[in-house]
Amino acid sequence: MSEKSLPRVAILATGGTIAGRAGSSLSHEYKAGSATGAELVDAVPELARVADVQVEQVCNIASSNMGFAVWRSLVARIDALFTDDPGLAGIVVTHGTNTLEETAYFLNLTVRHDRPVVLVGSQRPATALSPDGPLNLVNAVRVAASPDSRGRGVLVMLNDEINAARDVTKTNTYRVETFRSGDLGFLGYADADTVAYYRWPEKRHTIHSEFATGSVGDLPKVEIVFGYVESDAQVVIDALQAAGTRGFVFTGTGAGMLSDVEKAIVQASRDRGSDLAFVRSNRLGNGRVLPHKEHDDLGIVAADNLNPQKARILLMLALAHAADLPALRRIFAQY
Asked: Whole-angstrom Cα distance, residue 127 to residue 129?
């Protein structure tokens, strides 16, 4: 294959462990976002064998510090790259793993193109004795360049596995196989011979999404309330509501069930004529939260199988688009 025939892929760098450096190759203490995107690419000459890559630095931070401003910048830049360059095969976003799944899901709901956007990170910094970042980066570029990736929504590529942005979550603090899609499983592999897919995401995303950020101002404030034995939810919700919170995602116990205290809080909100939005997710990591009459009668929306952090993102975007209760129920069923 000649260099001219290689697919073209853009890399948008945001920092994270993949760009981290430590004082020792055996240290687990390092500074995320120490290397630039250009330095990451230069350190992996194998990239030149799989794609013609261009690199841009969006930010250089630990992903624990990720925020909506960077998300907006990413959406705007992705849209501009795809619109201005019809021949661009795909885009890779390098990212820290701590909030990678949240960025991926936000992009999954707001990017309005069917060409692949692939998020990639690493569990070990670039200076580690056996870093996972270089191979992850090569495979992410291969996935972004693959025609088979088109139309599958935003993807997450680590440890040779391709996951859907909606389904995937980080499950382990340090192991390289940290990203899992629970019961549903990943979409495919990035193996040495090919990028191989075995299933297709069914929920709405990207070109089929109704959400766009261009006309939206600040996203409504939505917070997560974690459920546990004798939680003081009243104090938490009162304080957050006083701070301007418009929506709450309950991390319910079991199948997304709420305590009597939590239900009473929602009832009191309705009695006051409040337009607060409430969503029920769960703390288990797998399984659906089903509609349930006593919760439905209070206007609490079931999150299906979205985890709390992703339910929060969907609720923010829905409220930004002035969704009422019937629309919220439709949205959480479709996305």
From this structure: 7
pLDDT at 2 over 60: no
- 110 catalytic per annotation: no
* 151, two tokens: 């139309």
Tokens of 239: 């304080």
Beta-bridged to residue 155, according to DSSP, are: 118, 164
pLDDT tens, position by position, 81-91: 999 999 999 99
**Residue 202 in domain:** yes
What pLDDT, on a 0 to 100 scale, did the predictor assign at position 215? 58
For 189, the token pair is 């592999």
Distance CA(201)–CA(145), nearest Å, equals 19
In a domain, 217, yes or no: no
Count of C-beta atoms within a 10 Å radius of residue 150: 12
What pLDDT was estimated at residue 201?
96
What are the structure tokens assigned to 226, written together?
């974690």
What is the reported pTM?
0.96
Q: Where are the alpha helices (DSSP H) in 123-198?
A: 133-145
Indicate the DSSP class of residue 220: P
The average pLDDT across 108-118 equals 97
**Which position among 14, 17, 94, 110 bears the catalytic label?**
17
What single-letter DSSP state applies at residue 1? -
Burial 134-149 (b: 16+ CB within 10 A, else e): bbbbbbbbbbbbbeeb
Query: 170 and 37, same structural domain?
Result: yes
Whole-angstrom Cα distance, residue 51 to residue 4? 10
Contact 130, 97 (CB under 8 A): no
**Domains: count for the chain:** 2
Please identify, among 154, 180, 208, the residue that sits at the C-terminal boundary of a domain: 208
Report the Cα 8 to chain-centroid distance in Å.
24
User: Please, where are the H alpha helices in the chain?
Assistant: 37-42, 68-84, 100-110, 133-145, 233-242, 260-271, 293-296, 308-320, 325-334
Full domain range(s) for residue 274: 222-334
